[in-house]
Amino acid sequence: MFQLSKVRICIFDVNGVLIDSNPANAHAMGQAFSDDPLTQQQIASFYLTLTGIDRGEKIRRVQDQIIQRPFIEKEFELRWEKLKTLTKHSMGTAPLANGCKSILKALAGLDITRVALSNTPLNELHHILVVQKVEPLLDIIRGGGNWPKTESLKHLLDEFEFNPKTCLFIGDGKGDLWAAKAAGVWFVAIDPDTGEFDEAQGFDGPFENLAAWGRQAGLI
After folding, report:
1. H-helix or E-strand containing 204?
2. How far is CA 94 from CA 14, 65, 102, 170, in A?
3. Rounded CA gap, 107 and 116, in Å?
4. 3-state DSSP call for residue 116?
């Protein structure tokens, strides 16, 4: 168990960690691809298996596995823009994770830098966090898009010259775990019982939700 006393930087994934937006985002992905309710449900169910990967890759996998044909010209861009609009609403109205604000406030009291690191593009992410009234509780916000979380985390560490040994990354997908391992950052797994981290090793948890981790860490 990684000791919180060693942490100077606490990095949070957003979707599924700070905000309980996975179900709403899954529905948004279905709507971005189809008007047919059955196809939307099929896409939403598949989306929920795609944790910890960037938005562009999720769109490509849905196209490959569910739609099962190559994109036609400009179709990827169309799906991206439609999903952008739908996700801004879904994440802006989804409930915050239990304990989200109290944990962020407690970390500030410990002089720990609070970072949101998401696969959601930055402008969209910033809007969502403002609407959710979480933005004032974060010191750094960094988005993603059409590149893996491994790259986003590396860029964050390089940009601020953070020492990986003093960082903690909290995420809900194996892609987040892989990014943490690649960067040499200790990882806390959040999983509400999907089996996402079954057979994986070298991390704390999984915890059912952010509050469960916060209680174990003595923050709430």
Report:
1. strand 204-207
2. 12, 27, 18, 19
3. 13
4. strand
In this prediction, residue 211 carries a pLDDT of: 96
Q: So what's the pLDDT on residue 14?
A: 94
φ/ψ (deg, to 5) at 89: -75, -45
DSSP per-residue string spanning 138-186: -SEEE--SSS-HHHHHHHHHHHHT--GGGEEEEESSHHHHHHHHHHT-E
Classify residue 2 by burial, with Cβ atoms within 10 Å: 0-12, 13-18, 19+.
Answer: middle
Mean pLDDT on 133-153: 92
Question: Alpha-carbon distance 18 to 97, whole Å?
Answer: 5
Say what the pLDDT of residue 7 is.
Answer: 96
Angle made by CA atoms 30, 34, 37, in degrees to the nearest 5: 75
Distance CA 85, CA 192 (A): 27
Hey, what amino acid is at 147?
W
Q: The tokens 């720990």 sit on which residue?
A: 112
Is the predicted pLDDT of residue 145 greater than 80, yes or no?
A: no
> Which H or E element spans position 64?
none
Q: What is the pTM of this model?
A: 0.86
The answer to whether the beta carbons of residues 156 and 142 sit under 8 Å apart is yes
User: What does R_g of the chain's alpha carbons equal in angstroms?
Assistant: 17
